[in-house]
Design brief:
The complex is a heterodimer of chains A (229) and B (548). By secondary structure, chain A is an alpha+beta fold. Chain A has eight helices and seven strands, in the order αααααββααβββββα. The longest helix of chain B has 14 residues. The chains are: A alpha+beta (229), B mainly beta (548).
């Protein structure tokens, strides 16, 4: 695969894929293609097969294109899941790791590999998916962009008890959440006085807790997390 | 009403009458409330069941009686037919089952195999069957119309409507409408550079009797509302089902969007007859009138809704009316004999219309077009305020029930050149219809703009003569299922989370629910089997049937 291949693939992607996967591959009717993780395989051969033949039993159709065009789309799709090279992290990743695991108490909510909590997103490969600016903003203004799955919710029971957590599921009858103590909870709406969504993130803003250098170090550590390639 | 329902049931049972389903029975389908003889129950499009054994008082006791395991991962959009205790349904892609309607036990199966690759935009779906005589009619994803013997499941004839691979791809997903001795069938493909039509076939032989081109051809009236040659690839499909007025002998059918969906640069003009209600003579296929809800659409707000036919006094004068809650966010009332515009009123949040002129042409607010970088300030969203999911009209409450989608979405203008301008492009290449990004799953590397609490679904009860909303029942997610009203004073439907509900038709209060826990893409029916009333609705890949 060459860069021109990917560039031509970008134009083909606009034609064939954006209807469902969004203008930037961010997802829509179809899955988000920017995470670097693909349900039906991320190898060139798997992506080729998915685009060429579609996915039976889903809305993903076989794409009407030549074999060469499909290869170019594969090249482009692979660029969606990887950040461009050359961004230089601002701090010391080793120092950042110590803060992440110690003073920052980040593992309470975030997992790296098999260790850590599940109130926030898994960060095992966050460095591959998010750029420096995004990581820094996430620490300073965590509410700027909260993935839907990690939006916080507060339920207030008819007896006046308030439980905060992240929403795991909801329908018109009930709501399920993971509370701040990592318990799985379910509430019938008929037993609730109110459901609030006005504080979208459970994560504290770290600008007041860490120095500028410490933030840079944590960003560097996060940027070094590339997951299993 | 209850006595009438019982009497009808007894008559059918005593006479052992089942097949054939004559045209006369279709004309009088309202007098057979125990059966479900066509997609919308009656030609008027009401999807109203005159059965009243399940009531606002006893619906709390409704329980599951049987399940039909669809064993398919496709969206299960079917509306079953019921003929005297036998249920006929399509299961994706194009399989047909005959079941005992009291137990769900399968009596025969017809299996149709589509090619590996078909060209439907939005799932390998089918919405149902038509019936006449002893024959069932189904259209297929590869553009065939098939007649099946309702007693044996044997194929009687098969007609190719169109080369399904042409022009980027055609498909057929709706339920056929039987009128007299004809089977009227629409087609899908408006996401490709196709040219739409509505067909009528001889129910006995499968021979095509007429074709109405939904884009006027050279020499026809209203030719010239498309810039250049864009009419040749303008889309305008007919992918849902129509309604029929026997008195005036008129079929009413909605049309889809113009192509390319989100980029109107190459198709300046009104783009007739896209996004329109059509009134056609079913004998000849000739157009009587048209009304275009959305001239020069760039939002995929197609008019593929089920037309609702009403007779009522309007402004102190008895009128033959057509009520239409459209995908563009407005409820419309038209005169169904002339197509005259009577009123329009929004039933969801909308940003694109300031008002309407006397002819019903929308006065468009600038700034609502899709842009290359994406415009996320437009209501309704790309899937519209209404879509293919059936509305329902109850003659008891005189209300129109619509399960509406109240949301905004990101509209992005396709930056790809129009395929018609590219050499040899109109063969499927360059078929990209447009671009949209959806809410719900966040914005990837961008911003999660649309939290679930910003968009929702709602059953709205609309007074059809004023457009005023009498009540709303809100649900947390914009729906993909329709509603059915009944003489028991209930409105049934189901949500994207699988919550099947019965609402009080007068107030909207939810009186009963069932937790199906899978997405619902279908609209309920109700029928009698062995004297008992049942309600059926596809939930996930399972057809669930409830009774008392």
């Amino acid at each position: 695969m060459t860069v021109p291949d990917a560039q031509q693939g970008a134009a083909l992607f606009q034609t064939h894929c954006t209807y469902c996967h969004g203008a930037h591959g961010q997802g829509g009717r179809g899955p988000d293609l920017t995470t670097g993780q693909y349900k039906h395989g991320g190898s060139d051969a798997s992506l080729y097969d998915t685009i060429r033949n579609g996915v039976r039993g889903t809305e993903m159709p076989a794409v009407l294109a030549t074999d060469d065009e499909v290869r170019k789309m594969v090249a482009f799709v692979k660029t969606l899941g990887a950040l461009p090279p050359g961004e230089k992290p601002p701090g010391d990743a080793d120092a950042g790791k110590l803060i992440f695991e110690g003073k920052g108490a980040c593992r309470t909510c975030h997992a790296i590999g098999r260790d850590g909590g599940s109130l926030g997103p898994d960060l095992s490969d966050v460095g591959r998916r998010r750029d420096i600016q995004y990581l820094e903003e996430s620490l300073l203004k965590p509410e700027a962009d909260v993935p839907i799955r990690y939006r916080s919710i507060q339920v207030i029971t008819k007896s006046g008890q308030t439980i905060a957590g992240i929403r795991l599921n909801e329908d018109d009858v009930s709501v399920q959440l993971r509370d701040e103590q990592d318990n799985l909870r379910s509430f019938l709406k008929e037993n609730l006085r109110e459901i609030r969504h006005d504080k979208p993130s459970l994560m504290p803003a770290y600008g007041a807790r860490l120095s500028k250098k410490e933030i840079d170090d944590v960003v560097s550590y996060l940027s070094s997390l590339r997951g299993v390639q | 009403m209850r006595i009438a329902a019982i009497a009808v049931a007894v008559v059918w049972t005593l006479h052992g009458q089942s097949l054939p389903v004559t045209y006369d029975r279709l004309l009088n389908a309202d007098k057979e409330p125990g059966n479900w003889l066509m997609y919308s129950h009656t030609y008027s499009g009401w999807r109203y069941s005159a059965l009243d054994r399940i009531t606002t008082q006893n619906v709390k006791n409704l329980g599951v009686k049987w399940l039909f395991q669809g064993r398919s991962q496709e969206k299960f959009e079917t509306t079953p037919l019921v003929v005297d205790g036998i249920m006929y349904l399509t299961r994706p892609e194009n399989d047909v089952f005959a079941l005992d309607a009291e137990t769900g036990r399968v009596m025969w199966t017809y299996s149709y195999k589509n090619p590996q690759r078909t060209y439907n935009c939005c799932g390998n779906v089918n919405r149902g069957l038509g019936v006449l005589g002893n024959s069932l009619f189904m259209n297929t994803l590869d553009m065939h119309l098939i007649a099946i013997d309702a007693k044996s499941g044997r194929e009687l004839w098969k007609t190719e409507m169109q080369d399904y691979t042409a022009s980027g791809g055609y498909a057929a997903t709706g339920a056929p409408l039987v009128v007299k001795d004809k089977v009227i069938v629409g087609m899908a493909g408006g996401e490709h550079p196709i040219s739409g039509f509505l067909d009528a076939y001889d129910a006995a032989t499968g021979k095509r009797l007429w074709r109405f081109n939904t884009i006027p051809q050279p020499g026809e009236a209203n030719f010239g509302t498309w810039a250049g040659d864009s009419w040749k690839t303008g889309g305008v499909a007919t992918w849902n089902t129509g309604s029929y007025d026997p008195e005036s002998n008129t079929v009413y059918w909605g049309t889809s969007n113009p192509w390319p969906d989100y980029n109107g640069d190459y198709r300046a003009g009104d783009n007739l007859y896209s996004c329109s209600a059509l009134a056609l003579d079913p004998d000849s296929g000739k157009l009587k009138w048209h009304y275009q809800f959305t001239p020069h659409d760039t939002h995929d707000w197609d008019a593929s809704q089920i037309p609702i036919l009403l007779d009522a006094p309007f402004r102190d004068k008895p009128r033959k009316l057509i009520a239409w809650a459209a995908r563009n966010g407005f409820y419309y009332l038209l005169d169904r004999n002339s197509g005259e515009f009577l009123l329009a009123k929004s039933f969801v949040r909308q940003t694109w219309v300031r008002g309407f002129d006397d002819k019903g042409r929308p006065q468009v607010i600038p700034g609502n077009d899709p842009t290359p970088e994406g415009n996320d300030q437009i209501f309704p969203g790309v899937d519209g305020a209404a879509n293919w999911m059936s509305p329902s009209y109850s003659p008891l409450t005189k209300l129109l029930y619509v399960f509406a989608r109240d949301e905004r979405r990101l509209f992005t203008k396709n930056t790809v050149r129009h395929a018609a301008e590219e050499n040899n492009a109109v063969g499927g290449r360059g078929a990209g219809a447009g671009i949209f990004g959806a809410g719900g799953n966040g914005g990837g590397r961008g911003r999660a703009r649309f939290a679930p609490e910003e968009s929702w679904g709602k059953v709205v009860a609309i007074d059809p003569l004023s457009g005023n909303i009498q009540w709303e029942h809100k649900v947390i997610t914009p729906p993909w299922g329709g509603v059915m009203s009944t003489a028991g004073g209930l409105v049934f439907g189901g949500t994207q989370e699988g919550v099947v509900f019965a609402l009080d038709a007068r107030t909207g209060e939810r009186l009963w629910y069932f937790l199906g826990n899978d997405r619902i893409y279908a609209t309920p029916i109700s029928y009698l089997a062995n004297g008992k009333q049942y309600v059926s609705l596809a939930v996930g890949d399972v057809l669930v049937t409830w009774g008392l």
